[in-house]
């Protein structure tokens, strides 16, 4: 009797803690920390505008959200997989143009990915490595790209979440025995269907996944040879998800396009880069642009096949790109193989200034100290450590007798597929992203083994397979960290030819030191600008004389101070002469010179300084607004080559030769400044507006509002018929005060032709939100 527990004393199953729930409890603090980390960086990233494909995604999504379907890509270089534009468009439709909702959803997806990584680690790690899932979750929680990508309009966050979910569903479908009980077999089939749906959606997010589907099905057959049903069900489900889009875009784009045409464009870039021996996309862009009937772009001078000329639709352009790419490869196959091997190495190298890292301009001190350190520690250092640890973790998991081989093989299939595919096109930092969740899982296996089961660590590595894995780990470490860069023979002071981790410039460590050392200069620049804008010229002069101003402030600061004091000719004398400027395309120096010449009445000289191509392409409207103190004026001729310093929030000037007019499109929140134009009596503010650029189907439902000091003083329509003048009465204000006019109104995103025509490093890839097209704005008496 003593060994029998009465039924009344047995714990009820209804009150017994769920073991699976208890097992997940340690993950909660990790998720909480990950969420806090991501939210803390909202709005804090050192952005300078949109990067990479963000502008394209946002433009296409805006059109989709406003009922224009996928027509934006009709005029672009390629078409895109639809799911991420739909994802963005849904947010724009529901929440407007604010990015907060998009960032919030992507942050949630990022946290879900952390959970999925932990769940996958439980499937892959040997049962005795109970901490491996938590270690993998920690690595995914703090890895900087996983933290900052939710604040970017790029598909990686959504794509990785779908892939991880698909992988987990696949492993669930394979977990049951081939002749399982009916209820377990049903669960297995559900797993195959779920995996097909998720990988189908992943394919509609990034089209190269289409090539992975048969590879994954092959894995399913290989691991379950007597059961083809699940593999076929997986493929059929994925096909059902993808097929409606294939039918739709094949109809709207004029021919068979399974998912998109970006693969054809990337194939042509890779083929041309190999053929010419230089990575550049200009020949491919020119080749494609010359196929648009309404473009006048000349095709590249040398093509493998005769250029096909104008093509009627995207499907025809896709075929032409594929034919040209294959011809270039066939012409120099060895060069393509060599290029692919180089790209394979580059895939694993650290590229400190990759666009997605937001680190460009590091030598100016632009990057905050915390961001520099996190980039070094939580991006580069974590990556360099994860590579060898992941490869060793693969060997440990693969040789473990306590874990099924199917999960490890699935991970290997995915890793090998991505590693082999990327070099065939070209390699950038983003292409590593789908690999890293799995590298973190495998690295967690290594770390947990070293911590808890050190006695089991070396045995698998002594086998031939383990030695091969250790050799691969060493090779990847050499590629990623490149410690041999320290031994490279090179002239004193010259840069290394190898991007490394701890070696000489351009190593991650060397650039980190440069960025940290340059930070005080940027902070002094900010203090100088604040003093200049507030009129505290004594402080500005002290910073210039005794501080550590940046390069541009040091050479232009004295002239800017003199200009603020109205000593324009003296300011001109303090400027470096044009032939002594820091380079032949010194935008800031040219703008300051133009402002000073304009201030002394030399309009011809001012136009000569404002209108060189390098200044015009940069469109330095924001910089001129912040730094210049232009002379008083009552007239602003927008786009007339003398408006810099008087306007903000306006795009590159446009001309109408027939009407002899110049214009600028301005966006919501645009500012117009009339220095010294304030009067103690009411004045008339006249806007010359050209409404012909507004699309007929997007006519604004409200006018442009005119505000002075935050108070609305009038309105005018953004899209009148033709060019018309509208008047607004300004209230009395302090005599001689600056009149700053603020404009607010509805906007639209233009077509792909305007997006492709953008010039200048700062302008390329930015989404234009057009509100009103202005010719002139002037102040006069009532």
TrEMBL record:
<keyword id="KW-0328">Glycosyltransferase</keyword>
<feature type="transmembrane region" description="Helical">
    <location>
        <begin position="369"/>
        <end position="396"/>
    </location>
</feature>
<keyword id="KW-0812">Transmembrane</keyword>
<keyword id="KW-1003">Cell membrane</keyword>
<keyword id="KW-1133">Transmembrane helix</keyword>
<feature type="transmembrane region" description="Helical">
    <location>
        <begin position="231"/>
        <end position="248"/>
    </location>
</feature>
<dbReference type="GO" id="GO:0016763">
    <property type="term" value="F:pentosyltransferase activity"/>
</dbReference>
<dbReference type="Pfam" id="PF13231">
    <property type="entry name" value="PMT_2"/>
</dbReference>
<feature type="transmembrane region" description="Helical">
    <location>
        <begin position="101"/>
        <end position="120"/>
    </location>
</feature>
<feature type="transmembrane region" description="Helical">
    <location>
        <begin position="21"/>
        <end position="45"/>
    </location>
</feature>
<dbReference type="GO" id="GO:0009103">
    <property type="term" value="P:lipopolysaccharide biosynthetic process"/>
</dbReference>
<protein>
    <recommendedName>
        <fullName>Glycosyltransferase RgtA/B/C/D-like domain-containing protein</fullName>
    </recommendedName>
</protein>
<keyword id="KW-0808">Transferase</keyword>
<feature type="transmembrane region" description="Helical">
    <location>
        <begin position="408"/>
        <end position="428"/>
    </location>
</feature>
<feature type="transmembrane region" description="Helical">
    <location>
        <begin position="208"/>
        <end position="224"/>
    </location>
</feature>
<feature type="domain" description="Glycosyltransferase RgtA/B/C/D-like">
    <location>
        <begin position="80"/>
        <end position="244"/>
    </location>
</feature>
<keyword id="KW-0472">Membrane</keyword>
<feature type="transmembrane region" description="Helical">
    <location>
        <begin position="132"/>
        <end position="151"/>
    </location>
</feature>
<dbReference type="InterPro" id="IPR038731">
    <property type="entry name" value="RgtA/B/C-like"/>
</dbReference>
<feature type="transmembrane region" description="Helical">
    <location>
        <begin position="434"/>
        <end position="451"/>
    </location>
</feature>
<dbReference type="GO" id="GO:0005886">
    <property type="term" value="C:plasma membrane"/>
</dbReference>
<dbReference type="InterPro" id="IPR050297">
    <property type="entry name" value="LipidA_mod_glycosyltrf_83"/>
</dbReference>
């Amino acid at each position: 009797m003593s060994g029998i527990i009465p039924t009344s004393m047995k714990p009820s199953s209804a009150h017994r803690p769920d073991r699976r729930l208890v097992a997940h409890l340690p993950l909660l603090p990790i998720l909480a920390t990950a969420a806090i980390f991501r939210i803390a960086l909202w709005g804090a990233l050192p952005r300078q505008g949109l990067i990479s494909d963000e502008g394209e995604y946002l433009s296409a999504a805006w059109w989709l959200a406003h009922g224009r379907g996928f027509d934006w890509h009709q005029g672009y270089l390629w078409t895109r997989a639809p799911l991420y534009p739909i994802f963005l468009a849904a947010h724009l439709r529901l929440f407007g143009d604010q990015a907060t909702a998009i960032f919030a959803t992507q942050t949630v997806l990022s946290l879900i990915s952390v959970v999925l990584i932990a769940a996958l680690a439980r499937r892959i790690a040997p049962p005795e490595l109970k901490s491996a899932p938590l270690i993998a979750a920690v690595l995914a929680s703090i890895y900087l790209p996983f933290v900052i990508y939710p604040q970017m309009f790029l598909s990686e966050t959504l794509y990785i979440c779908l892939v991880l979910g698909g992988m987990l569903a696949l492993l669930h479908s394979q977990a049951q025995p081939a002749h399982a009980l009916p209820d377990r077999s049903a669960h297995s089939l559900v797993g195959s269907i779920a995996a097909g749906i998720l990988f189908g959606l992943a394919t509609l997010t990034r089209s190269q996944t289409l090539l992975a589907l048969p590879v994954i099905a092959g894995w399913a057959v290989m691991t379950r040879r007597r059961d083809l049903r699940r593999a076929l069900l997986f493929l059929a489900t994925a096909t059902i998800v993808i097929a409606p889009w294939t039918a739709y875009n094949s109809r709207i784009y004029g021919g068979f396009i399974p998912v998109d045409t970006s693969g054809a464009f990337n194939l042509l870039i890779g083929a041309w880069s190999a053929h010419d021996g230089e990575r550049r996309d200009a020949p491919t862009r020119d080749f494609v642009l010359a196929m648009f009937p309404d473009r006048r772009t000349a095709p590249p001078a040398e093509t493998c096949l005769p250029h096909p000329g104008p093509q009627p639709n995207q499907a025809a352009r896709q075929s032409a790109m594929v034919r040209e790419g294959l011809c270039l490869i066939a012409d120099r196959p060895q060069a393509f193989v060599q290029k692919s091997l180089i790209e394979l190495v580059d895939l694993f190298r650290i590229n400190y200034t990759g666009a997605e890292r937001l680190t460009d301009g590091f030598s100016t001190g632009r990057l905050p100290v915390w961001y520099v350190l996190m980039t070094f520690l939580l991006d580069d250092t974590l990556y360099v450590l994860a590579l060898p640890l992941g490869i060793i973790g693969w060997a440990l998991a693969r040789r473990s007798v306590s874990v099924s081989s199917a999960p490890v093989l699935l991970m290997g299939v995915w890793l090998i597929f991505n590693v082999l595919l990327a070099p065939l096109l070209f390699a950038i930092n983003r292409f590593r992203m789908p690999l890293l969740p799995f590298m973190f899982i495998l690295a967690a296996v290594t770390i947990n083994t070293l911590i808890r089961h050190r006695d089991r660590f070396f045995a698998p590595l002594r086998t031939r397979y383990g030695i091969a894995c250790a050799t691969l780990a060493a090779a990847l470490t050499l590629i990623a960290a490149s410690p041999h860069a320290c031994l490279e023979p090179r002239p004193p002071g010259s840069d290394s030819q190898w991007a490394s981790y701890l070696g000489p410039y351009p190593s991650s460590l060397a650039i980190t030191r440069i960025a940290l050392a340059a930070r005080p200069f940027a902070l002094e620049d900010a203090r100088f600008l604040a003093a200049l804008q507030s009129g505290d010229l004594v402080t500005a002069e002290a910073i210039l004389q005794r501080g550590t101003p940046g390069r541009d402030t040091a050479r232009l600061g004295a002239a800017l101070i003199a200009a603020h004091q109205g000593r324009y000719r003296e300011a001109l004398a303090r400027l470096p002469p044009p032939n002594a400027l820091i380079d032949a395309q010194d935008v800031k120096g040219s703008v300051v010179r133009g402002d000073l010449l304009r201030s002394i009445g030399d309009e011809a000289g001012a136009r000569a300084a404002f209108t060189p191509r390098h200044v015009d392409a940069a469109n330095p409207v924001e910089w001129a607004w912040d730094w210049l103190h232009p002379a008083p004026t009552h007239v602003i001729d927008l786009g007339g080559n003398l408006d810099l310093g008087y306007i903000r929030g306006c795009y590159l000037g446009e001309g109408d030769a027939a009407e002899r007019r110049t214009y600028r499109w301005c966006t919501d929140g645009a500012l117009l400044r009339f220095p010294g134009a304030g009067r103690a009596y009411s004045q008339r503010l006249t806007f010359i507006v050209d409404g012909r650029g507004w699309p007929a189907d997007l006519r604004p439902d409200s006018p442009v509002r005119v505000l002075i000091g935050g108070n609305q003083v009038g309105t005018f329509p953004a899209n009148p018929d033709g060019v018309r003048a509208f008047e607004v009465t300004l209230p009395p204000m302090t005599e001689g005060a600056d009149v700053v006019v603020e404009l607010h109104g509805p906007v639209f995103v233009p077509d792909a032709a305007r997006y492709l025509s953008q010039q200048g490093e700062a302008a390329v890839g930015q989404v234009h939100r057009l509100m009103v097209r202005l010719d002139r704005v002037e102040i006069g008496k009532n």
